[in-house]
């Protein structure tokens, strides 16, 4: 497509930094701060947009794996909800961002219900604990890398570049 | 007949906290929020001052302030018939939603209680329920100083990322001592009306915190999160006993204290809005969070940019005479990281989605930090289970 998305984003950034920022009075600090964040968001969007679908698909697939691991810890109702969410997730059009995103949220909600165990005071089963922690030990660093350009990460040098998060097959 | 398993009591909250959370849900129904204009703010201030009995009111030099992620803040100069000289003041007002929902009445009571004990901005006026300002608000005198040194290059959002460099020897002792003074003060003797202490010798201090933030999580949820749900259950199961409740500041960290140059003397401990009666370990755990650390010259993480962890905890124990229990610090580190997920991922995104704040863009930016807290929680729970 021409002009492509990156070109349009860069044009917006240039207008904001070269024209709009210079027109803002120096004492309008809130406006200047928000302008800086707009530019930051644009840069992150420019990095994210080409990978966004693959990122969401990766998250969905990771949750499907977690669902299989946690299913034995649920009661019949929780298992049924989880099965339904997994079935829907398996049937989504994997080229459709909205469908993937919706399926991912539905699956996460079903997992939430199972983990919360109806607010029971029963101790957390060690197997459930280990599976959840193992899942997020992989998922959290991936998410940190995805958001590295926010500069909020205290250890940015440990993060891989966003492009390396995706293999050609995903 | 099936017997239902026992369930956690989710409803045990300080009454005023429950009130402000309910009030937030009512405000959400009012639709989107836009930044107030100077004219609106001036008119609302005049209403408040007239209701407070002032005459011949003149408000000038109104200027919007930046910093923080929850309140709308303005500096202004007030002159009136009873004042001998103009005074520069700061107004903090609630938008429909900020990154946290808190009570200006509680904040005002603490500013009065702690005046003279630690440096705080002097309280001038409070409108706890927004009767005159249109939204809850609080007015203090302007305090000199800044949250970051002027001679150290630094880029920070909401205080995160400030570097103190050669100012550390002057600032670090005050940082510890002021926290100690907050915890040592017998606030219950001051008759504060907006606070209710948890029962000593029980797990109520921790359970109430879990209840507070789990209610926020449920009400502000944008996207389900199995880790957040798991951590909530873990926190309920592992809640420690609090032997002696103190006043917990709740947001004692880098970016929330001001100092003057060149002395380096603290001029104010800021942002008391999250303060609550609870376990002193909670403030220690909040301070030591990874997000608030910056590397020292040798690369070692410095707590709030000031001290290595072990030295910070040791100096605090010396200053208070309290015994710091590492397993309870670890528990509250997990609670703090979970609370940050609630704040940054649920409330921040909810406020932005519903257009409830004057700085939605700041809120969505801060939500990027959630991944850091998720990663921390995994490590912390594994370490806690090994303790």
Structure description:
The complex is a heterodimer of chains A (170) and B (387). Chain A is 67% helix and 0% strand. By secondary structure, chain A is mainly alpha-helical. The mean pLDDT of chain A is 94. With 387 residues, chain B is of the alpha+beta class. Chain B contains 11 helices and 11 strands. In chain B, the strands form 4 sheets. In chain B, strands 1-2-3-5-4 form a 5-stranded antiparallel β-sheet, sandwiched between helices. Chain B has a two-stranded antiparallel ribbon with strand order 6-9. In chain B, a hairpin with a 5-residue loop joins strand 10 and strand 11. In chain B, helix 1 (15-28) runs parallel beside helix 5 (204-220) and helix 5 (204-220) packs parallel to helix 9. Classes of the chains: A mainly alpha (170), B alpha+beta (387). The interface between A and B is large, with 47 and 50 residues.
**Strand pairing plus helix content of chain A: what structural class?**
mainly alpha
Domain module tally of chain B: 1
Order of helices and strands of chain A: HHHHHH
Count of DSSP-assigned helices of chain B: 11
- Fraction of residues in β-strands of chain B: 5-15%
Note the beta-strand portion of chain A: under 5%
Q: What is the level 1 CATH name of chain B?
A: Alpha Beta
Low-confidence stretches of chain A: none
The shape of chain A, in one word, is elongated
Largest sheet of chain B: 5 strands, antiparallel
Rg of chain A from C-alpha positions?
Answer: 21 Å
Distance between the termini of chain A: 23 Å
Secondary structure tally: strands of chain A: 0
- What overall geometry of chain B do the principal axes of the alpha carbons give? globular
How is the largest sheet of chain B built, in terms of strand order?
1-2-3-5-4
Q: How many helices of chain A does DSSP assign? A: 6
CATH superfamily of chain B: Aminoglycoside phosphotransferase (APH), C-terminal lobe
Percentage of residues in helical conformation of chain B: 40-55%
User: How many domain units of chain A?
Assistant: 2
**Corresponding CATH architecture of chain B:** Alpha-Beta Complex
């Amino acid at each position: 497509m021409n002009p492509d998305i990156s070109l349009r984003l860069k044009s917006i950034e240039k207008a904001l930094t070269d024209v709009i920022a210079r027109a803002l009075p120096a004492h309008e600090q809130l406006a200047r701060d928000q302008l800086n964040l707009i530019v930051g968001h644009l840069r992150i969007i420019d990095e994210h947009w080409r990978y966004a679908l693959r990122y969401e698909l990766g998250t969905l697939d990771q949750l499907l794996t977690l669902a299989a691991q946690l299913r034995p810890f649920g009661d019949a109702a929780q298992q049924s909800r989880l099965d339904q969410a997994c079935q829907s997730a398996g049937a989504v059009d994997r080229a459709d961002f909205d469908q993937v995103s919706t399926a991912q949220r539905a699956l996460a909600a079903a997992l939430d219900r199972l983990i919360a165990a109806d607010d029971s005071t029963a101790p957390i089963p060690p197997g459930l604990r280990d599976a959840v922690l193992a899942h997020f030990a992989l998922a959290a660093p991936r998410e940190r890398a995805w958001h590295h350009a926010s500069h909020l990460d205290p250890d940015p040098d440990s993060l891989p570049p966003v492009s390396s998060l995706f293999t050609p097959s995903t | 007949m099936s017997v239902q398993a026992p369930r956690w009591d989710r409803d045990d909250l300080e009454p005023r906290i429950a009130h402000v959370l309910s009030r937030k849900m009512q405000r959400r129904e009012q639709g989107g929020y836009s930044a107030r204009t100077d004219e609106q703010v001036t008119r609302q201030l005049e209403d408040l001052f007239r209701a407070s009995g002032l005459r011949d009111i003149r408000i000038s030099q109104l200027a919007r302030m930046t910093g923080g992620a929850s309140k709308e803040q303005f500096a202004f100069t007030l002159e009136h018939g009873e004042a001998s000289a103009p005074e520069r003041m700061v107004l903090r007002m609630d938008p429909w939603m900020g990154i946290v929902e808190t009570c200006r009445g509680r904040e005002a009571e603490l500013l009065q209680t702690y005046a003279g004990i630690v440096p705080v901005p002097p309280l001038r006026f409070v409108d706890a329920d927004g009767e005159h300002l249109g939204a809850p608000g609080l007015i203090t005198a302007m305090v000199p100083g800044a949250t970051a040194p002027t001679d150290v290059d630094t880029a920070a959002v909401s205080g995160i990322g400030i570097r103190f460099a050669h100012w550390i020897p002057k600032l670090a002792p005050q940082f510890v001592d002021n926290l100690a003074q907050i915890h040592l003060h017998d606030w219950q003797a001051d008759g504060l009306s907006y606070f209710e202490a948890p029962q000593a010798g029980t797990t109520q201090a921790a359970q109430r915190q879990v209840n507070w933030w789990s209610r926020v999580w449920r009400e502000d949820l944008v996207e389900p999160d199995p880790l957040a749900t798991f951590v909530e259950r873990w926190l309920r199961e592992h809640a420690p006993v609090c032997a002696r409740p103190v006043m917990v500041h709740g947001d004692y960290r880098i970016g929330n204290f001001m100092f003057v140059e060149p002395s380096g003397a603290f001029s104010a401990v800021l942002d008391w809005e999250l303060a609550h009666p609870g376990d002193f370990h909670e403030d220690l755990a909040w301070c030591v969070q990874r997000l608030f650390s910056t590397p020292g010259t040798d690369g070692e993480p410095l707590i709030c940019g000031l001290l290595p962890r072990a030295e910070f905890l040791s100096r605090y124990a010396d200053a208070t005479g309290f015994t710091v229990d590492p397993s309870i610090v670890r528990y509250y580190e997990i609670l703090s990281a979970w609370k940050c997920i609630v704040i940054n991922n649920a409330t921040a995104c909810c406020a932005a989605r519903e257009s409830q704040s004057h700085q939605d863009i700041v809120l969505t930016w801060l939500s990027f930090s959630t991944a850091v807290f998720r990663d921390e929680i995994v490590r912390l729970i594994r370490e806690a289970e090994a303790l």
